[in-house]
Amino acid sequence: MFDFTGKTAIVTGAGSGIGEAVALELAAAGAHVIVSDLQSDACAHVCAAILDRGGKATACVADVADPQAHERLVACAEDTGGLHLAVNNAGIGGAQAPTGDYPLDAWRQVMGVNLDGVFYGMRAQIPAMQRAGGGAIVNMASILGTVGFANSSAYVASKHAVIGLTKTAAMEYAQKGIRINAVGPAFIQTPLLTNNLDQEMLDGLAGLHPVGRIGTPEEVSALTCFLLSDRASFITGSYHLVDGGYTAP
Ligand code: NAP
User: Fold this and answer.
1) Element housing 86 (H / E)
2) Could you state, in order of their start, the residue ranges of all structural domains in the chain?
3) What are phi and psi of 205, to 5 degrees?
4) Which of 11, 72, 190 to mutate to test the pocket of ligand 1 (most atoms within 8 A of CB)?
């Protein structure tokens, strides 16, 4: 559907869930994907899947909460000829507790990954995209970037902040050939959910979506790849839902 031939893309959190689906779709459409995650086996697994299908990929272990790690990812992309696309996707759910009891270390951890990780990513990626003549970035937010969710204050605050950060950076680079958007998935069938919730809770979450189910990583990837593609050439600074109607009521 899209053609990313000749482009290099960084995808963080690409070893699982939504990031894995995005990495596979970008590679299938011709991109060289820098597959980045915390664990080397997760990176290797996704790289192998891409290479098996005849695609191009490089594994790069990186903790998005570390600004230096993003410099290494960009260097890795520039070794392939330049950085054109980036998906700042890595994220964690964090502790579940009411705001008055929310653990301080959990707050810092969630902000470090979900918010600082996106800022550090763009701070390293944007100059590289300028060197490459332009590019496109998608930051993975959430429906919880615009609505609240009890007992998840750190996650909700981090995702609201990602949307503001996205809009601000997009305004700064709109005339410099770099488009920057945020995506807001509702609940998606990935290990982030399935490792933390039992089937009864998953069924309860499905009922919150007017379509009657939770989403798939591929449904989030389809929107993400569209926003990265030239088909989205007039789209920047905006937040795009893929939520089965969750926020419609
Ligand atoms: P996932 O399956 O848990 O995948 C996230 C990946 O990111 C994992 O491989 C994880 O590694 C990695 N990661 C965690 N911390 C990292 C760090 N500090 N640096 C680099 N990588 C790190 O989760 P997902 O559901 O695909 O989520 C992807 C993004 O979508 C997140 O930003 C999430 O907030 C967002 N999102 C998800 C949903 C949903 O319902 N699933 C809904 C809305 C938004 P480990 O497994 O080793 O921790």
Assistant:
1) strand 85-88
2) 8-241
3) -65, -40
4) 190
Each residue's pLDDT, cut to its tens digit, for the chain (249 residues) gives 799 999 999 999 999 999 999 999 999 999 999 999 999 999 999 999 999 999 999 999 999 999 999 999 999 999 999 999 999 999 999 999 999 999 999 999 999 999 999 999 999 999 999 999 999 999 999 999 999 999 999 999 999 999 999 999 999 999 999 999 999 999 999 999 999 889 999 999 999 999 999 999 999 999 999 999 999 999 999 999 999 999 999
Instruction: State which ligand 1 atom lies nearest to the alpha carbon of 185.
Output: 43
**Helical residues (DSSP H) of 146-247, grouped into ranges:** 153-173, 191-194, 199-206, 217-228
User: What amino acid positions are annotated as catalytic residues?
Assistant: 155
**Residue with the nearest Cα to atom 33 of ligand 1?**
91
Pocket lining: 92 vs ligand 1, CB cutoff 6 Å: yes
Q: Is the CB of 19 under 6 A from ligand 1?
A: yes
Residue 176, Cβ density class (10 Å: 0-12 exposed, 13-18 middle, ≥19 buried): exposed
Cβ–ligand 1 contact at 244 (below 6 Å): no
Cα separation, 175 vs 198, whole angstroms: 47
* Ligand 1 centroid – CA 91 distance (Å): 4
Q: Is the CB of 113 under 6 A from ligand 1?
A: yes
- Specify the fold of 8-241: Rossmann fold (3.40.50)
Whole-model pTM?
A: 0.99
